[in-house]
């Protein structure tokens, strides 16, 4: 009797009521699907997913940058979407500390170890090229 | 439109942390008060407030992830580590109860009769209800894993059915334990045996209850289409918590029930 009542309610309940799965147990066929991950995602998560799907492994540009030549004429270029960015230079492999400094757009800077860095406009997630 | 260029989630101002802290403090002071004055009023009020505050906090977390999309890969990774660290802290919590159990039981003192279980304590037969409890929890671990695979394979029927079975098994375990507590010939006041036994199994029961609610909420969120096949951190966390509860029970069963018999 109780079973029949629960069954009757479950088969007629709108989607949000009895969201504990009673509808599947009482014979209503749930679709054999799940939301497509990209379709379900929204906001920042979706942007990141789309960027990764397009082949960008580092959509937020937070990966460590391997230093290049690093002379005054050829500084290592660090991308940034803002006017300034804090970076850390690992001067040599056996460094016991990271040398942090703030870079400003258009002003090349030299680390104590002699390596030059320059801040350049980046291609981060809010860059117009990613807005589809 | 998201304007941030970084993957971190800088949370909006929220009242829930401070409120949760206050309500938990109220609950704990109330619990001590209940032990001293037999009045559970402050404890019950604190418990109710804690439930309200934590529900609203976690409701906000699920809104921020599913509806606002703040949970980037990095944030998800941080949450995974957070859950692992929390479960580790719970393991240490139970470790302390096992320490107190072994302190009393490995070298029982004169007052207990130099034996364990102490003289006069009729220990529960581990091959009756406790064995059923063990099988219920182990089987529920299997069902919850099956449900997880159902989600990954986009099979709603398997997911819903098996999660429901897991939740029901959790409730079955709790009711069996409640019956055992009711029928038990000894209480928490009965020597260090009763103290350590009910402290450890009691907290374990509370954890089973919380784990069951967590699994149920995960199931409800799935039916509200908040999960996709590769982003379902709430479900994963609830399953990890459930496995932890299961493992703790195995230790409890082995030492507090079987070894003590």
UniProtKB/TrEMBL annotation, chain A:
Which SUPFAM superfamilies does the record associate with it? Rubredoxin-like
- Say if the entry is tagged with keyword Glycoprotein: no
- Name the GO cellular-component terms: mitochondrial envelope; respiratory chain complex IV
Q: Which InterPro entries match?
A: Cyt_c_oxidase_su5b, Cyt_c_oxidase_su5b_sf
Q: Which is an annotated Pfam family here? A: COX5B
Q: Which UniProt keywords apply?
A: Metal-binding, Zinc
Q: Which GO MF terms are attached to this record? A: metal ion binding
Name a single GO biological process.
mitochondrial electron transport, cytochrome c to oxygen
Zinc recorded as keyword = yes
The UniProt annotation places Zn(2+) binding at 89, 91, 111, 113
User: Which residues belong to the signal peptide in this entry?
Assistant: none
Database matches in PANTHER family: CYTOCHROME C OXIDASE SUBUNIT 5B, ISOFORM A-RELATED (PTHR10122:SF0), CYTOCHROME C OXIDASE SUBUNIT 5B, MITOCHONDRIAL (PTHR10122)
Q: What is the protein name stated in its UniProt record?
A: Uncharacterized protein
Taxonomic lineage is: Eukaryota, Metazoa, Ecdysozoa, Tardigrada, Eutardigrada
Q: Which gene encodes it?
A: RvY_10035-1
UniProtKB/TrEMBL annotation, chain B:
Q: Which UniProt keywords apply?
A: Membrane, Mitochondrion, Translocase, Transmembrane, Transmembrane helix
Provide the Gene Ontology terms for cellular component. Answer: membrane; mitochondrion
Purpose of the protein: Component of the cytochrome c oxidase, the last enzyme in the mitochondrial electron transport chain which drives oxidative phosphorylation. The respiratory chain contains 3 multisubunit complexes succinate dehydrogenase (complex II, CII), ubiquinol-cytochrome c oxidoreductase (cytochrome b-c1 complex, complex III, CIII) and cytochrome c oxidase (complex IV, CIV), that cooperate to transfer electrons derived from NADH and succinate to molecular oxygen, creating an electrochemical gradient over the inner membrane that drives transmembrane transport and the ATP synthase.
The protein's GO terms of the molecular function aspect are:
cytochrome-c oxidase activity
GO biological process terms, alphabetically, are:
mitochondrial electron transport, cytochrome c to oxygen
Keyword match Cell wall biogenesis/degradation: no
Give the organism's phylogenetic lineage.
Answer: Eukaryota, Metazoa, Ecdysozoa, Tardigrada, Eutardigrada
Q: Which organism is it from?
A: Ramazzottius varieornatus (Water bear)
Q: What transmembrane ranges does the database entry give?
A: 16-36, 81-102, 122-146, 158-176, 196-219, 240-259
Q: What is this protein called?
A: Cytochrome c oxidase subunit 3
Enumerate the PANTHER family for this protein: CYTOCHROME C OXIDASE SUBUNIT 3 (PTHR11403:SF7), CYTOCHROME C OXIDASE SUBUNIT III (PTHR11403)
Query: What's this protein's family per the entry?
Result: Belongs to the cytochrome c oxidase subunit 3 family.
The record's InterPro entries line, in alphabetical order, gives: Cyt_c/ubiquinol_Oxase_su3, Cyt_c_oxase_su3_dom, Cyt_c_oxidase-like_su3, Cyt_c_oxidase_su3-like_sf, Cyt_c_oxidase_su3_a-hlx
């Amino acid at each position: 009797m109780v079973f029949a009542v629960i069954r009757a309610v479950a088969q007629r309940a709108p989607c949000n009521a009895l969201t504990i799965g009673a509808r599947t147990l009482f014979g209503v066929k749930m679709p054999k699907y799940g939301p497509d991950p990209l379709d379900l995602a929204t906001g920042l998560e979706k942007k990141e997913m789309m960027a990764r799907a397009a082949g960008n492994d580092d959509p937020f540009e937070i990966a460590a940058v391997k230093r290049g030549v690093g002379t005054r004429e050829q500084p290592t270029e660090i991308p940034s979407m803002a006017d300034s960015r804090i970076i850390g230079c690992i001067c040599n492999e056996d460094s016991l500390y990271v040398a942090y400094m703030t870079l400003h757009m258009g002003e090349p800077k030299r680390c104590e170890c002699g390596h030059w860095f320059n801040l350049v406009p980046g291609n981060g997630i809010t860059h117009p090229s990613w807005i589809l | 439109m998201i304007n941030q260029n970084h993957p971190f989630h800088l949370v909006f101002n929220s009242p829930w942390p401070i409120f949760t802290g206050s309500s938990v403090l109220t609950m704990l002071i109330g619990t001590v008060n209940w032990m001293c004055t037999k009045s559970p009023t402050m404890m019950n009020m604190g418990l109710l407030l804690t439930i309200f505050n934590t529900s609203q906090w976690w409701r906000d977390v699920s809104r921020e992830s599913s509806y606002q999309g703040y949970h980037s890969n990095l944030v998800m990774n941080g949450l995974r580590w957070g859950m692992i660290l929390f479960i580790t802290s719970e393991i240490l919590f139970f470790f302390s109860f096992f320490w107190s159990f072994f302190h009393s039981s490995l070298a029982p003192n004169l007052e207990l009769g130099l034996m364990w279980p102490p003289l006069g304590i009729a220990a529960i037969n581990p091959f009756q209800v406790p064995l059923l409890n063990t099988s219920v929890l182990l089987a529920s671990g299997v069902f919850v894993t099956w449900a997880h695979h159902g989600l990954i394979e986009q099979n709603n029927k398997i997911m819903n059915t098996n999660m429901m079975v897991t939740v029901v098994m959790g409730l079955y375990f709790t009711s069996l334990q409640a019956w055992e507590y009711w029928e038990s010939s000894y209480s928490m006041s009965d020597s260090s045996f009763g103290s350590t036994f009910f402290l450890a199994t009691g907290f374990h029961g509370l954890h089973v209850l919380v784990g069951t609610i967590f699994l149920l909420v995960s199931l409800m969120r799935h039916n509200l289409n908040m999960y996709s096949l590769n982003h379902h951190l709430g479900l994963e966390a609830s399953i990890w918590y459930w496995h932890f509860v299961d493992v703790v029970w195995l230790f409890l069963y082995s030492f507090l029930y079987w070894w003590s018999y």
